[in-house]
Every structure is written in C-alpha cells, then in structure tokens.
Amino acid sequence: MAITENRQSSVLQALLSADSKPTKDIPMKRLGVDFQIQALDGKTINKIQEQCTHYVGKGQKREKVMDEEQFGALVIQKACLIPDWSAKELIEKYGTPTEAILGLLLAGEIAKLSTEILEISGFDSDEDEIKN
C-alpha cells in the first residue's frame, strides 16, 4: 500500500509542477529567424478541426473532409507566440492572420511548424493519426 501512495504522490507532484503550455523555438532557415511556438490544449485543437472540416457528397456518399492547409494555418496562428500573426502590419497587407500565414510561409514551412506544434502538444509525429 505504501508503494501505491508514494506513486500517487509522485504522479500528483509531477502533474502539479508540470509546465501546462510548453514552448519551443523553431528555426526558420529561409527567413534566418526563430519562431516561438507553444503547446495547444485538446479543446483548441478540436475547435480548429471543426472549423476546417466540411462535408462533400450527398446521401450515402457524404464524407467528412478536412482542409489540411487551413488546419495547418490555424494551428500556427493559435500556437505562435513569435511572430504575432495578428500584428497590425500583417493584417493591413494580408487581411487576416490565416492569409498572412498562407501568403508568407512555404508549404513545407507550414507543415514543419504545425507538426512541431502538435508534437509539443502531446501528439505523435504521425499527422495522419492526429487528423483522422
């Protein structure tokens, strides 16, 4: 019984002292700067998935489809501490944070950043498992 109590105490201590939103710097080689990202909670990721999901087809052939480009851009928008995608200068030029991300970053950079964000948020690196 003492082992169980010690284990319970250790687990509780680990939970209470854990950094709730870990951060990480991601080097962006093409730009020569580091972006700073933070982990997202499950509720935020679920909301983003809902925003990016639509239905195609009718009746029995109706399927859920996720816009992966939009998903990546929204994950980046929510998780980036640096840069602030809602900065006045970006909004004036691109209209929305999502359009700024899609307009300024290359497809591979979007994939890299969104993968890193999902990894520090506790998901495996296999994006297909996360999105399905």
UniProtKB/TrEMBL annotation:
InterPro entries reported in the protein's UniProt record: XkdN-like, XkdN-like_sf
Domain of life: Bacteria
Pfam families attached to this UniProt entry: Phage_TAC_5
Record-given protein name: XkdN-like protein
